[in-house]
Design goal:
With 487 residues, the protein is of the alpha/beta class. Helices cover 41% and strands 12% of the residues. It is built from 14 helices and 11 strands. The chain has helices spanning 18-37, 50-54, 67-78, 100-112, 122-137, 152-168, 172-175, 194-202, 223-235, 258-268, 323-328, 363-398, 423-437, 464-486; strands at residues 145-149, 184-189, 210-213, 239-246, 271-275, 300-304, 316-320, 403-405, 413-418, 443-447, 450-456. The strands form 2 sheets. The protein has a 7-stranded mixed beta sheet, sandwiched between helices. The protein has a 4-stranded antiparallel beta sheet with strand order 8-9-11-10. Strand 10 and strand 11 form a beta hairpin. Helix 1 runs parallel beside helix 3. The longest helix is centred in the last third of the chain and has 36 residues, at 363-398. The chain is globular. It binds pyridoxal-5'-phosphate (PLP). The site of pyridoxal-5'-phosphate has 15 residues, from helix 6.
Length: 487
Amino acid sequence: MAKTPPADPRASLDPEDWETLRAQGHRMLDDILDYIEGIRERPVWQPIPDEVRERFRSEVPRAPAELTDVHHEFMRNVLPYATGNVHPGFMGWVHGGGNPAGVLAEMLAAGLNANLGGRDHAPIEVERQVVEWMRTLFGFPDTATGLFVTGTSMANLIAVLVARTSALGAGVRRKGVRAGAKRLTAYTSAAAHGCIAQAMDLSGLGIEALRVIPTDDHHRIDLDALKATIAADRAEGATPFLVVGTAGTVDIGAIDDLAALAEVAKHEKIWFHVDGAFGALAILAPELAPRLAGIERADSLAFDFHKWGQVPYDAGFVLVRDGRMHRSAFASPAAYLRRETRGLAAGSPWPCDFGPDLSRGFRALKTWFTLKVHGTERIGRAIAHSCELARYLKSRIEATPELELLAPVQLNIVCFGYRSPDANRLNAEIVIALQESGIAAPSATTIDGRVAIRAAIVNHRTEKQDIDALVAATLAIGAARQESAAA
Ligand SMILES: Cc1ncc(COP(=O)(O)O)c(C=O)c1O
């Protein structure tokens, strides 16, 4: 229990004794670096015991406590029960592993406490530099603009809003979507992430205005079905305005034929957006980059650095080809945000002109550090390595009679199952048991009505031994559950 120190009459939150704070700060830094360095010694994940969960029910802390005590509380009650995505055995959903340079950069960013909504200061230049790097990397013209956001969900929403403004004109911002005579429709595949439908919802266009196009055998958007649906919508008086391709579908990592989508969009004169949440950064791996051909023709691209880019959460990003359109979808003049040509209010346009956030943190710094410290070649190598591991896992599954592949392995995601007459129930149980074992943490999904154990290899720390541990634990759990079900 923290003892209540005597009331401090000072308003400042800085310490009276900087030396003590400094020593404590070094301990905290050591602890978190120890955590990362020794991550293999820990379970990937463990459930939160009831008594620990109970500790998060305490009252608002009115009196001060010692930093040391709060840090102890963190070490005891928070750190051991984190998601586990720093661990090489974490393969659930699509989670990046982070990296120590990014951690240290985040600490520096917190110290600067910069607000990247706008104004003229070097942190904005850091963000602009990353925007420029991404613009060149993805082959966008120099009219393109970009912005850090929370994650790819937000980046996709921003892109849908810019596409909406492009279709309806900037008047939509005042009058709303109902004011226009047009009934806008958008198109994406059945394998697209749910945040695309959510973006249609949030943009006021409605989820039903998103046409969900079936996929082919490779889980890519069916181009003939896409063209037929656009034609049918036009015939019914709708205005097709947006097609969303995916570079790395969330379930199995499929990449739509982006060049063909670019052609369809050009022919139909509609906005071409790419959701490249994790897959877009495959551009850093020379052996994978050709599969993204056509991405350079997108009107907008959403992705993030916190998955395959290994930047600590969160670091979403959106790139828009037509920077003027991007700005006209968001810029909102206000007297208190007056721009100047000199002084701190110089440097317009500001990031707040390109998205809904005014106050914004310095996400760019941990990204800038990660890119500079490791270099894009090394990050690309880690990306290619996770695809090699996925192929290795595929070969292990094919060589193991008890297991079967449930989807083609195209990138870094493997969906498989334990063969059983009661496979759906068994595989859902195996996923939970694997997570609870602390050995590996895949997640579950459903492929063609079948529950799959889904291993998304994203973490740069994952090695063959982690894949072997996943297979061994799956077999052991599967056999034990089959036996107990038979008994
Ligand atoms: C294809 C795809 N799009 C969008 C998202 C959402 O990204 P975020 O979690 O960064 O919002 C994901 C997340 O896995 C994804 O795989």
